[in-house]
Specification:
Strand content: 25-35%
Largest sheet: 7 strands, mixed
Oligomer: single chain
Radius of gyration: 14 Å
Organism: Pontibacter korlensis
Protein name: Phosphoribosylpyrophosphate synthetase
Number of domains: 1
Length: 111
């Protein structure tokens, strides 16, 4: 039965990121970027840097596409946020990330 346990690429990437100290899970609300552990710290886009991102494609269904943003905040918090990619993307997350400083793979800011 152990042969059937298979990690998805996103799970592997998240595990590696956590080993590198990116262990905060973030969410975007109308008030800005918040840690899911402690909603007291709020960040505006100019206080967030995208240090990297990863895109994942669904095996059989395009709606399964996702993007994982690797983030650092002005207060030193390091973590990530995931979102659907393409047609099913969360507009709030997408708009926030377009305004954040991109140190990663040159996100397309005009989409």
């Amino acid at each position: 039965m152990e042969d059937k346990i298979e990690l998805t690429p996103m799970v592997r990437v998240l595990a590696r990121l956590r080993d590198e100290g990116y262990n905060v899970d973030f969410k975007v609300t109308e008030n800005g970027l918040l840690s899911t552990m402690d909603d007291k710290q709020q960040f505006r886009p100019e206080e967030v840097q995208i240090v990297n991102f990863y895109r994942f494609e669904g095996e059989s269904y395009p709606g399964d596409m996702a993007i994982l943003y690797v983030l650092e905040t002005s207060s030193g918090l390091k973590g990530s946020i995931s979102d659907a990619y393409g047609l099913y993307a969360d507009e709030t997350v997408e708009n926030f990330m377009k305004l954040a400083k991109d140190l990663g793979k040159n996100l397309d800011k005009h989409v």
